[in-house]
Amino acid sequence: MTSLWQPKTLEEISDVFTDGDWIESKDQSHDGIRLIQTGNVGEGIFKDRSGKARYISESTFSRLRCTEIFKGDCLISRLPDPVGRSCILPDTGERMITAVDCSIVRFNPKLAIPQFFNYFSQSIDYLKAVEAETSGTTRQRISRSKLGQITIPLPPLPEQHRIVAILDEAFDGIATAKANAEKNLQNARALFESHLHAIFAEAIRNGELVTLSDLASDISDGDHMPPPKSPTGIPFITIGNIKKQSRTIDFSDTFTVPRTYFDGLKANKRPRVGDVLYTVTGSFGIPVLIKDNLEFCFQRHIGLVRPKPEIISPWLYYLLLSPQVFKQANEGATGAAQKTVSLKLLRGFQVPKIPLDRQKADVTKLDSLLEKTQRLESIYQQKLAALDDLKKSLLHQAFSGQL
Fold first, then answer.
1. How confident is the model at residue 1 (pLDDT cuts 50, 70, 90)?
2. What is the DSSP string of 16-39?
3. Same domain membership, residue 217 and residue 89
4. C-alpha pair distances (Å), 372 with each of 17, 149, 272, 400
5. Is there a single domain that holds both residue 175 and residue 228?
6. Per-residue pLDDT tens for 161-219?
7. What's the CA gap between 104 and 20, in Å, rounded?
8. Least crowded by CB within 10 Å, which of 30, 77, 212, 297?
9. Is 39 within 8 Å of 49 (Cβ atoms)?
10. Considering the entire predicted model, what is its pTM?
11. Could you say which DSSP state residue 302 is in?
């Protein structure tokens, strides 16, 4: 920060600094004045989410003496994630108010422009300052009084405009580059899925149509009873330990159960190399091929498919990953709060049975495609990470007077 910059608190540079209104469900209506909530406040952007918009009536607005908000106002969420994120309110074509967990900031035009603070709110220094003032046991939040005392490094207005113009241009370029990288990432995944679909479409055409039970020596799920915990012992995984994108198990955040508990489980509830786990509740339809000889057990929200000798495990894994099988899981899953693939449904999946040599040929093709896809994904993920680092670097330069 240069000598011309004046550190001032958020409250000091605001003509209006207040919270939104306490609006309960009973106060809401289907139309009228729109209620902007914390979910509409992104990190520097306004999220319209018009499909989920809520309203209050004119009479409720008057009765509760609500504070109307306008285009150009800055909204700051006092709830995660992250606490303190902000956006500038656009013209939505509607009258608007905001919820109590959003702070309304209308800057003194002689001291600050909203766009300058909106960029500052995305900087590491600001987010760390806010985090230091958050509190709460069940949910972290910052009080309006503490938010108001967050210090802003404030240059003269012409310098604010100059910095905003530079960041606008740079962030537009970064946004375009990110969109391209994300699109390429999606395309790489879609390409693999299309090949996966084609290979199993051919297997269905040329193979014998059977049930999944016909390919497996056992199909079961984890123990239905709550397991006993112990300081040491055998890892016990839940559905939260299965990583959807990589289809692997994260053992870093598991608890352990006594050896006696594990030894007392039936053989089909103790995974072994070659088994395929399959999530059956919540984020259902994720297969995991067990490649390592590691002792662990699992909860009932995870299924286990143990292939017969004539079925090779990698082929079974790809089969359970295929769009054809996922469609059956998706159409047959039941439950309101959390959809579940029952064991009956899992065992009854209609699948192809093909000769061993064809299985091996399919696996060779898919392994090669998956390796290429993962290599491309790694490249695009690195590009996305580099773009995020560039944004952080630009923001640090901007608010330390180096831009």
1. low
2. EEEE-B---GGGEESSSEEEE-GG
3. no
4. 53, 51, 28, 42
5. no
6. 999 999 999 999 999 999 999 999 999 999 999 999 999 999 999 999 999 999 999 99
7. 7
8. 30
9. yes
10. 0.77
11. E
Token look-up 């495990």 returns 313
Instruction: Judge if 298 and 192 occupy the same domain.
Output: no
Expressed as residue numbers, the domain containing 307 is: 211-353
Rounded distance between C-alpha atoms, residue 107 and residue 236, angstroms: 53
- Token pair recorded at residue 1: 């920060």
Non-local (6+) Cβ contacts of 59 within 8 A are none
Strands 54-56 and 350-353: unpaired
| Of 194, 190, 283, residue with least CA distance to 243 | 283
What is the distance of C-alpha 22 from the center of its chain? 28
For residues 66 and 120, membership in a common domain is answered with yes
pLDDT tens-digit map of 20-60: 999 999 999 989 999 999 999 999 999 999 888 999 999 99
Structure confidence by residue, pLDDT tens digits, 49-107: 988 899 999 999 999 999 999 999 999 999 998 999 999 999 999 999 999 999 999 99
